User: What shape does this take?
Amino acid sequence: MTCKDNNIKELLTGFAERILDQADKQRVEEHLAACEDCRSEVFILRMMIADTVPDPGEVFWKEMPSRVNRAVQEDKATIRSFDLSWLVGRITLPRWVLAAATVGVALVITLTTVRFLKPESNLPLSQGYIFSGESMAVESINVAELSRDQIVTINTWAGSELASMAQEAEPVIASGRDTDIYEELAALNANEIDSLSHIINNWEEEG
Amino acid sequence: MDEDIDLINRTEAGERDAFDVLVIKHQKSLYALLYRMVGNHEDASDLLQKAFVKAFTGLKSFERRSKFKTWLYQIAINLAKNVYRDRARIEQVPLDSVIIKRNPRTLENLINNENRLLLRQAMAGLPEKQRLTLMLRVQSENKFEEIADIMKCSVGTAKANYHHAVQKLKVMMLEKEKEEE
Assistant: This one.
């Protein structure tokens, strides 16, 4: 039968731990003599109290504050390198802006590449142009000195390169939907996040 | 002023050593609770460190309406719950199938390794709130008021959870006694 004596029940933990004063201890002992329910409760409590936790040793306790310290510093460093929140405010742009930026970057790359060409080169660009070490030197090109054939060749090549980029960007432009950076970030896998983090760190280092 | 609150104020003022004092003060009792929850040193020490790190980094969110110890225990228990649930899933033994072998000679003789293992298994079979309440009461020597704060429940609920936990463990023992008779 379950004992309903709450005054005694309150004392059982202390009794099991042997920390009661003499008067309370005697009260509990008298009760236990007649109450099987409380006797079994004390038995369980004493078993739990006796089930001590192994002491990991003084070295462990002494090192814990510095372990916590190190972990806090490591956490801070991790948060710094993975905190993309600053990016959020900057990349909430319409998709057409991103598409236009892509085309712009492509244009810059194209023009930069053209500037490496030697005026006397007769190689058709559409078949690919292999730069020799010598030809890699940056030289200014006077467009007026280029032959008509060279200009047509450059124009054809650049046109085909831009057309393929524009084709890729077209669905983005057509959708007209604003970019949700949270969606984009959520869709990244671990490797992509690593790569993005790496790029951002490089940007930061480069100022 | 509460000693812990003073140490927290000093920590927030940039006195990093003050937090070390808090770690030293609470680490043993918290480790004991965590060890009992997860059952091994590796997880317990890892959780202990994580709990202190989380407490340090989240110190600004500590509203000081409760004791630091209560708040720290809440953090640690939440961290341990995931690990503990995994362990419990593996080790849980239905109460009905757990048998504590009682030695009729003396109470102290009953406390042997075999019984301890069975007690742990029985504890794993208790509902989480009852198990935690029992651990906090018996093994961390908390008052019901503190337990209620840690478990975010009323004092009455804390007492009820403790009572139910003890009753369930008792049922297990009584069943064995009947078998012996």
In short: Chain A is about 65% helix and 0% strand. Residues 16 and 44 of chain A are 9 Å apart (CA to CA). Residues 148-175 of chain A form the longest helix (28 residues). The radius of gyration of chain A is 38 Å.
